[in-house]
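User: Predict the full complex structure for these chains.
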Amino acid sequence: MTTSAPRRPRQDAVDNRAGILSAATAAIAHDPQASINTIARSAGLSRRALYGHFADRNALLAEIIDTGAERFNRIASDVTDTDAQVALARLTSLLWQQAAHVQVAASIALDDAHLEATGKALAPLRHAVAAILQRGQNDGTLRTDVDVTTLARLVEEAARAAITRVDATLPEARSLAVRTTLSMAGLSWRETVALLAEHPDILGDSAAGDAAPADVAPAAGGAAPAAGDTPAAGAKR
Amino acid sequence: MTTSAPRRPRQDAVDNRAGILSAATAAIAHDPQASINTIARSAGLSRRALYGHFADRNALLAEIIDTGAERFNRIASDVTDTDAQVALARLTSLLWQQAAHVQVAASIALDDAHLEATGKALAPLRHAVAAILQRGQNDGTLRTDVDVTTLARLVEEAARAAITRVDATLPEARSLAVRTTLSMAGLSWRETVALLAEHPDILGDSAAGDAAPADVAPAAGGAAPAAGDTPAAGAKR
DNA sequence: AATAACTTGCACATCACTGTGCAAGTTATT
DNA sequence: AATAACTTGCACAGTGATGTGCAAGTTATT
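Assistant: Here is the predicted structure of the four-chain assembly.
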């Protein structure tokens, strides 16, 4: 008796699920309060279909946070520079590429309902940052007028602001994010400029990954183009 | 014929109105989504009574923004230091005292619905900041690796973060806010420490106002103490 | 003491959103 | 071509919030 092997998910369904995640990331980055309908529509699906992929809003948010945090944590573990200034700069530079994800993580992290979950998911990243800062304080390369905990928070906020609240299309956007973070860590602006001049690789085009990570929003319209109640183009079925 | 002069508002009503504004400021600083009911209850009034003082949610928010902005703008115009570094430091120091108002303004300013209104209300403050930054760039006392507009945004974000996302009860909180802002403006942390040492008045206890400004939340419980549907103590009738 | 001002509680209409059930249609996969 | 997987649209129930009308009570002011 050939016990019918439960057929694996259809390809279009897999794509649509991924599309929802992208769309949700983009939509929530733009408006943390984005409704399920808005998200589904901007992914080119009906609201009803979304519930076929995610049990509820929380499940969707949880997965967004998890995958986002995974990226961040992976990036953090990839930064191995012993020089704290360089490490912090490189970390910021790499995170800058994940602007939308940073935005979303920040939005969700501010929400009481998911504070716990985000805290856990982002723990490795935060640990890494704290370790870098501590190291810099120990060898005197970073500011010591603030305790590590507070400094970590300030640096995180500065990075978030520089990454998400500055026009990312500007050519100097990435460099700006890095300089901003270093400033918060205690360097003068001239020191940050000098540091980046000495380490041009930090702002490099970073063709040094493994697989090219499919980035945000391969779906249709950006986030919420006056979302009526009809699907945008892009749905596959 | 003694045309009955329309009796002036009762004193308790005036107090209650002020109480609502305080409560709303505190509540919204804690949670930008705070409901009308939550606000009213934390002011010791019923939801219904609130509508006797404010036409709708927007009217309430508008007044909060306006009074907050008025404080900020007044503060900004009071800062007359010619030295850009000192001016920026003093401005931050003074704004730090308005933590709850800064928090609220930031929250509301992020909301699309009130973006326009907040922008107009805060214009004078932003102009003042831009002027200070421009001055600093001209005489080389502030960073010149970022254009004024972007720098203004970054400084604003840094100040907001330092003022609202750091425990305000810490003794160094105020100093921290100032140092943070100066860091973002390009100074190294040692320079900020030196600057504050040279100008102890910046962190002074500021007994140098005119009338003591009635500050946030003379009402009852902080913001939302598991807001049921019954008034907290504090209502006057 | 009389009056107008104020507050309360309740009922009510409205809105936007969430989550689910189900029948009917479309499409990928075997 | 048959089948299971997927999507759609609609209906429906539930939640939580906003804003208003009104009668009854309480309180400041004259």
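Confidence is low (pLDDT under 50) at residues 208-228 of chain A.
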